[in-house]
Amino acid sequence: MNNSYYNHHVFFCTNQRAEGQRCCQNHDAQAMRDYVKKRSKELDIIGAGKVRASTAGCLARCGKGPVLVVYPEAIWYSYKNQADIDEIISEHLQNGRIVERLKIDN
Questions:
Q1: Domains of the chain from N-terminus onward
Q2: Model pTM score
Q3: What would the mean pLDDT of 62-84 be, rounded to a whole number?
Q4: Residue 56 falls in which region: left (phi positive, over 0), alpha (psi -120 to 50) or beta
């Protein structure tokens, strides 16, 4: 049984490092977080007992980025584009299935 306030709480690393350094924000991480929030509202999966998408500072996974992590399962994902985000929404957030091809090691 999931005792979390949200069924899935998604944290997007949106950190911006100094020019030239690898970081998630170089891959439009904030825009992807905004998209998850917008899409979750459209799908009516946002709110208590459902999904929450939040902005995080540096999650210290720069070499794997851009990254997001889904709690309470602590599943880390890297994504390349909106299609990857749509797959995470559909598979993991709506259906509880981990997207193995996007998962990164903890």
A1: 8-104 (3.40.30.10)
A2: 0.89
A3: 93
A4: beta
